[in-house]
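ARCHIVE CARD
Drawer: 12
Card no.: 0347
Subject: one protein chain, sequence and derived structure
Cross-reference: see card 0346
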Amino acid sequence: MDNSHIQSNSACWIFFIKVSFSIALIAMGIGIIFMPGGLVIQGYFAICSLFLVSSTITLSKTLRDEHESQRLISKINEAKTTKILNEFSE
């Protein structure tokens, strides 16, 4: 099997993404805790923020899965085409 088409992220990039996500999440939490307003308003923003994070993770996973399935379909179609061409050329 040819693994030349597999793309991988470097360890530095993965570390950067995890640190960026952590900093953004902590900053958002601190902002909600110290914002002026009542507990109801802070709770509302906290729930909305958690929903936004959850939706973002779900969206990125869905887009990644869709991209990978399209790559798989393309590889299958390419293999079928190669097989047909090989049979035709014989």
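Annotation on reverse: The first helix runs from residue 11 to 33. The chain has one domain: 11-89.
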